Amino acid sequence: MAEPKKAKRVEPDDGADKSNPRGGFPFFVLLMIFGLLALGGYQLMLTGNRSAVDYGFFLQEVQSGNVKDVAINSLTIQGKWENLKVAQEAWLKYKATKEAPPADDAAEKKPAAAPKAELTELFTTDVPALEGEYPLRLMEKHGVHISSVNDNFSVMLLQSFIYLLPVILISVFLLFAMRRSADPMSSGMFGNFVRSQAKRFRPNDLQTTFKDVAGMEHAKRELEEVVDFLKDPAKFQRLGAEIPKGVLLAGPPGTGKTLLARAVAGEAGVPFFSINGSEFIQMFVGVGASRVRDMFRTAKENSPCILFIDEIDAVGRVRGAGVGGGHDEREQTLNQILSEMDGFQANEAVIVVAATNRPDVLDPALLRPGRFDRHVSVDRPSRLGRVGILKVHVRKVPLGENVNLEDIAGSTIGFSGADLKNLVNEAALAAARDGKSQVDRIDFETARDKIMMGVAREEVLNAKERRMTAYHEAGHALLAWLLPEVDTVHKVTIVPRGRALGVTQLLPEEERFHMGESRLRSQLAMMLGGRAAEKLVFDEFSAGAEDDLKRASQIARRMVSAWGMSERIGPVAYRDGEEHPFLGKEIQETRKYSEQTAFLIDQEMQKILIHASERATSILEDNRENLDRISDALLEREIVSREELIELIGPKRVEADVVASV
């Protein structure tokens, strides 16, 4: 059996469009230039080899009888001398007299050299407009033969052409550009507009490999087959296997989807074309589809290669959800992508890699086998993955001896790859601001606090506001410390950060992928702990608990209407809105349940929140001394760390006790 041929790589051309036979210089432009030259030559022929003389000299020669005949054209007189030699001598004398120096300076200056004779047999002169009929009467008196010449038409034509030349040139340029843009793939002005905006990265520019990608072992294993196929397509084609034509990378923002695509191209050593999904959509109809055709044509010419489309959900959303129906520009662009990926013609050795944060809104035709066959989920890294990512980003950062990357990875649960890169950069900036030669542990803690809690604000609170804020944060911290289901308190501060007057920072000690009802109820009690502490100490509520109430209400509503954690509601999911693929957001719609059910949901939600608030108040009443200790420490130091909390109120409880049963 014959072995399949290996895909031949075509080197890109120099950018010239050799297939367009109309790319030459227009013939009518040459014709216009030739007409301009002919018109100028005609005017020169009319003028001839004539010497221009002054009007005064002309009158002098008429009076001396040395003018044979003349031809009058408006205010111009052209003629012929009776005796050229006499006219030349008279011209020399006339110019010498005209250029002679004043009488008082004649003795001081040397005599000037005699001027050369410049007259020819034919001459021309301009008649002043105020002369009237005087030169005509004078020439009649001295027997000069007079005739008239009318070449105003050629002069007017030449002047009109000169005046209209800019307009003609602009019109020719626009006509030439429109002619070239008749072919969407031409290199004319409008042809460049509809061309693909994909950027090509040369192999020497692609330094990213799988060694630079840490924490995504599952995704890298899925993409290794793509790399093997690009290196040796015949290995798979020999057994009749087909490599996936499209690979969809789906995951939260900042998890490294683009980095993975660059690593695949770097490992395979093939051309890498990158484009964003929004670059296909323009205000002109048909531009997106033209760009898609040009992009795939360029990719096929440089095959094998990788075509990376970032944020494909900008153009690949479900069809029929937008305005305009099937004539929508976005849908036409999507249809062209579908045709190019799995159309009538085979598309070999061009692998399309796409990335999106919203795989749920993509069109099903885009996700079917034959187009994006392989779906790779790129999630946030695990603890081991975060350690690897930190090692990659600290290669060029001098670290202090007290920096432990495993501890940093354990305190950054939920961070994406981009977040970890930002953490290392912020730590380096903090060390540079302090004039350090190395980045130590304090710099990483400062950077983490800045990312998680916000930048400290320079605001001065009065004594009452400061004391109320201290008890509010102490209530959060104490409940988080006493409830074993809640994450451990890492730091408590009353320094205004971000949009909050105080912050209680919690750091999970282990990674969790779901939460039970008991943990959610403890979480609600902790959220309402600040409000309960204010009521307990000051006998009033403050507006500082707005964000706590908002987040607690959202959790309670989902517990009742989405997660079935209410005995009266039962295992039923009620949604107040639906996500529209075209809008990409959840919008309010008519409820699909009765008002009685809505009232019941509100009652159950209120019941859960009231129970959480009463539980928080009861725990704080039983531990009032510890609440006062934490508050006094915050008023004194403004920041209380985890170690200081252990000194104040003892270690965190890790087993259920009588507190959890309240």
Write the layout of secondary structure elements.
Blueprint: H1 27-47, E1 51-52, H2 55-63, E2 67-73, E3 76-81, H3 84-98, E4 122-126, H4 134-141, E5 145-148, H5 152-180, H6 189-193, E6 199-201, H7 217-231, H8 233-237, E7 246-250, H9 257-268, E8 272-276, H10 287-301, E9 305-310, H11 329-341, E10 350-356, H12 364-367, E11 372-377, H13 383-393, H14 405-410, H15 417-433, H16 441-453, H17 463-482, E12 488-493, E13 503-507, H18 517-527, H19 529-538, H20 546-561, E14 577-579, E15 586-588, H21 595-622, H22 624-637, E16 639-641, H23 642-649
Parallel strand pairs: 1-4, 2-5, 7-10, 7-11, 8-9, 9-10
Antiparallel strand pairs: 2-3, 3-4, 6-8, 12-13, 12-16, 14-15
Helix pairs in contact: 1-5, 7-9, 10-11, 13-15, 15-16, 17-18, 17-19, 17-22, 18-20, 18-21, 19-21, 20-21
Output the keywords:
single chain, alpha/beta, Rossmann fold, 6-stranded mixed β-sheet, 5-stranded mixed β-sheet, 23 helices, disordered N terminus, EC 3.4.24.-, cell cycle, membrane
Summarize the structure.
The chain has 662 residues and is α/β, with parallel strands linked by helices.
Q: Residue share in helices?
A: 40-55%
Order of the strands making up the biggest sheet: 6-8-9-10-7-11
Structural class: alpha/beta
CATH topology of the largest domain: Methane Monooxygenase Hydroxylase, Chain G, domain 1
* Gyration radius from CA atoms, angstroms: 44 Å
Shape: elongated
**Major sheet attributes:** 6 strands, mixed
CATH first level of the largest domain: which class?
Mainly Alpha
* Termini separation: 78 Å
Strand content: 5-15%
How many distinct beta strands? 16
What's the pLDDT, averaged over the residues?
A: 76
Count of alpha and pi helical runs: 23
Which CATH architecture of the largest domain is right?
Up-down Bundle
Question: For this structure, what is the CATH homologous superfamily of the largest domain?
Answer: Peptidase M41
Q: How many domain modules?
A: 4
Residue windows where pLDDT falls under 50 for at least 5 positions: 1-25, 106-115, 182-194, 323-327, 579-588, 655-662
InterPro entries: AAA+_ATPase, AAA_lid_3, ATPase_AAA_core, ATPase_AAA_CS, FtsH, P-loop_NTPase, Peptidase_M41, Peptidase_M41-like
Subunit structure: Homohexamer.
EC number: 3.4.24.-
Function: Acts as a processive, ATP-dependent zinc metallopeptidase for both cytoplasmic and membrane proteins. Plays a role in the quality control of integral membrane proteins.
